[in-house]
Each structure stands twice: as C-alpha cells, then as structure tokens.
C-alpha cells in the first residue's frame, strides 16, 4: 500500500512544483517592474521591504488561535490575557523585523574574476547609518546564502555571493535578496536588489599544454629579453618587474627597493600568439594560451599577447596576467547570461 501511494504523491508533486515556479517567476517580474534596476548603492526604504510569516510563525499563529478558542469556550480570563499578550509580542516582532532592514545601505564592493568552472565572487557591502544595531542580516541568491552578519550603529560589513560558472565571458548578478528573521524567527522581512553587475570569467587553463613558445627574434637576429645566466648588477625597481628578481637582502639593509639584472642568452620575453596555439577549436586554443599566461606569471617572466586585432606589449606581474586573461575572456565574447 505504501509503495502504491508513493507514485501517487510524486504525481501530485510535479504540477505543484510547476505552479510554484510559475508563481515565483511572476512575482519576481512584478518586483522588477515595480522597483526597476538599482544603482551601485541603494538605501532600503520601507516601501520596498516585504514581510511574511515563516513556518514557525504560522505554527505560532495557529497556537494563538487555538488558545483564543479555548479561552473563550471555557471563559478563562487568564488564558485570554496570555493570548493577547503573545499577540502583542508577535506584533512587536513584526515591527522590529521590518525595521531591522529599513534604512540599510547596500552597495556593490567589486568582483573577483574566476576561471571557467569556478565560482564567480560578488562582494556586497552593507552599511548601517542608523543608531541601532542590525541583527542577523542575510544576503542570498538562488545559488546560496552568505553567512549572516550583524551591524553595530554606524558600522558596515562585506559579504560574498558565489555564482557558478561554466564558460568564459561574463556572468551577471541579476538579483539578490537582503533578509532577516530577527527577533524571534516568526517572520521574514526581505528586500530585493537588482544590481546588474557583471563579473569577468577567464578561460580555464588547459590541463595539458605544449611547452611555451620561445621569445621572438628581432631584426638583428638577437632574441628579445634578458636571461638569468649571469648576474649583471642592481637597478631601481619599476612596476612590472618580476617579484623573484627583487633584491630583498639589499632592501633589508638600506630600505631601497632594487631589482637584480642578469645577462645571458636565455630568452624570458615570449609572445603568446593565438595563431601559434594548438587546438581543434577556438576555446581549446584559448585554454592553451591561458595555461601559458598563468605559468609564465608564476615563473616571474615577462610576456606579451597577440590576438586578431589585439596586441598587449610584454610585461610581468599579476596586472599583466589579468590584462591578458581579460583579453582572452572577452575575445569573441559569447552571449551574456544572467546569474
């Protein structure tokens, strides 16, 4: 009998899930039309804060109704007094729950570009300009909820929202909610924010890639760049110099940031060209270029990048790595999608 009932309930669950999904979609569309897209910083006004009872709140309401019926049936004045006192407590909780969000400042605090297949990180800053403490604030998307935070008067905090990625390009944080269940968990107040902020997604480096191409050869037949064969002296540090060439001992002695120079035939300034990257299709070739760029930066090498219509001059460091990976991510960018 139990086995026969299980498919029946599963049959009923399917249309309920479809109906619930349709209602949620229509509700989100109504909220978007009512509020519109938000700027980078927004204040949560009372008119955009919604509140409904939680499951615990519904059970509490049923209990109060039962207490009211029982007290009226038996003319129990003490029971009526307790019922009205708990009802007043629930109304006070509703006021506090709604006010816990009112006036909160929500701002965009930047993104951390991931490689395809990793989570894109969107940072959201919460500010409390009021004079009261804000408790148990939750920021969430369809993909998860950040750890709750509390804000002292005049305080602020930053939370991180993670969205999954599957391919390079851009992923958009189309909406997120700021919610609270303070003080008793009987009600949930929430506000919806539509930031329309994008996060760049780098091509995932190929697991296996051929050896990086050698340095380019100039018109005189000499290879570009310097090698690491022989120490040639020290020079002043300039942004973009490889961190592994910094003379830390000299810095400890005199406090001046210097960089070691080397002379030799080994080339350390390769050009990474899409035309030279192996692969059966564009994405695999971009993955090979991504692998070369990541490995070159980890080795402290200077490198340049050539794509059709794009040429990035050789340099070293994380800024050069991010500049080149961003060019790969946006090269013939696929259609944008919302997160």
Describe the structure.
The structure is a single chain. This protein is α+β, with helices and mostly antiparallel strands. The protein folds into two domains: 38-200, no CATH class; 230-338, no CATH class. Helices cover 33% and strands 29% of the residues. The protein is built from six helices and 18 strands. It has helices at residues 2-35, 55-73, 77-99, 248-254, 282-298, 318-330; strands at 41-43, 49-53, 105-112, 119-127, 134-141, 144-145, 149-151, 156-164, 169-173, 176-180, 187-193, 197-201, 230-236, 258-263, 271-273, 303-307, 310-315, 337-338. Strands 2, 5, 6, 7, 10 and 11 form a six-stranded antiparallel beta sheet that branches. Strands 1-3-4-8 form a four-stranded antiparallel beta sheet, with no helix packed on it. The chain has a three-stranded mixed beta sheet with strand order 12-9-18. A hairpin with a 6-residue loop joins strand 10 (176-180) and strand 11 (187-193). Helix 2 (55-73) packs antiparallel against helix 3 (77-99) and helix 5 runs antiparallel to helix 6. It starts with a helix and ends with a strand.
Short description:
The chain is an alpha+beta fold. It has helices at residues 2-35, 55-73, 77-99, 248-254, 282-298, 318-330; strands at residues 41-43, 49-53, 105-112, 119-127, 134-141, 144-145, 149-151, 156-164, 169-173, 176-180, 187-193, 197-201, 230-236, 258-263, 271-273, 303-307, 310-315, 337-338.
* Number of strand elements: 18
Number of helices: 6
Q: Give, in order, the helices and strands.
A: HEEHHEEEEEEEEEEEHEEHEEHE
Question: Hey, roughly how much beta strand do the residues contain?
Answer: 25-35%
- The outline comes out as elongated
The overall number of domains is 2
Return Rg in Å: 30 Å
Approximately how much helix is present in the residues? 25-40%
Distance between the termini: 44 Å
Average pLDDT works out at 84
Low-pLDDT stretches are 216-229
The major pleated sheet works out as: 6 strands, antiparallel
Q: What class, by secondary structure content?
A: alpha+beta
């Amino acid at each position: 009998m139990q086995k026969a009932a299980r498919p029946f309930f599963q049959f009923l669950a399917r249309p309920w899930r479809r109906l619930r999904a349709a209602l949620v979609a229509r509700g989100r569309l109504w909220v978007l039309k009512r509020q519109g897209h938000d700027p980078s910083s927004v204040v949560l006004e009372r008119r955009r804060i919604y509140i409904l009872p939680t499951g615990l709140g519904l059970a509490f309401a049923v209990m109060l109704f039962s207490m009211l019926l029982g007290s009226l049936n038996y003319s129990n004045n003490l029971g009526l007094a307790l019922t009205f006192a708990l009802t007043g407590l629930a109304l006070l909780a509703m006021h506090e729950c709604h006010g816990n969000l009112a006036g909160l400042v929500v701002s965009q605090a930047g993104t951390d570009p991931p490689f395809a297949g990793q989570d894109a990180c969107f940072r959201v800053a919460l500010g409390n300009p009021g004079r009261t403490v804000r408790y148990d604030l939750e920021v969430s998307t369809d993909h998860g909820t950040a750890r709750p935070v509390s804000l002292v008067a005049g305080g602020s905090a930053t939370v991180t929202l993670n969205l999954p990625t599957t391919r390079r390009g851009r992923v958009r944080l189309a909406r997120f909610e700021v919610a609270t269940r303070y003080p008793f968990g009987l009600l949930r107040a929430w506000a919806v924010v539509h930031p329309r902020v994008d996060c760049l997604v780098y091509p995932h480096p190929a697991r296996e890639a051929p050896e990086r191409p050698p340095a380019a050869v100039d018109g005189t037949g000499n290879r570009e760049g310097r090698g690491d064969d022989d120490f040639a002296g020290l020079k002043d540090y300039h942004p973009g110099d490889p961190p592994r060439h910094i003379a830390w001992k000299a810095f400890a002695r005199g406090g001046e940031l210097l960089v070691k120079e080397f002379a030799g035939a080994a080339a350390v300034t390769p050009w990474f060209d899409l035309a030279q990257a192996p692969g059966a299709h564009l994405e695999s070739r971009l993955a090979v270029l991504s692998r070369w760029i990541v490995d070159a930066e980890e080795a402290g090498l200077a490198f340049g990048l050539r794509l059709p219509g794009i040429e990035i001059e050789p340099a070293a460091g994380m800024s050069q790595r991010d500049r080149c990976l961003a060019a790969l991510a946006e090269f013939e960018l696929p259609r944008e999608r919302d997160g």
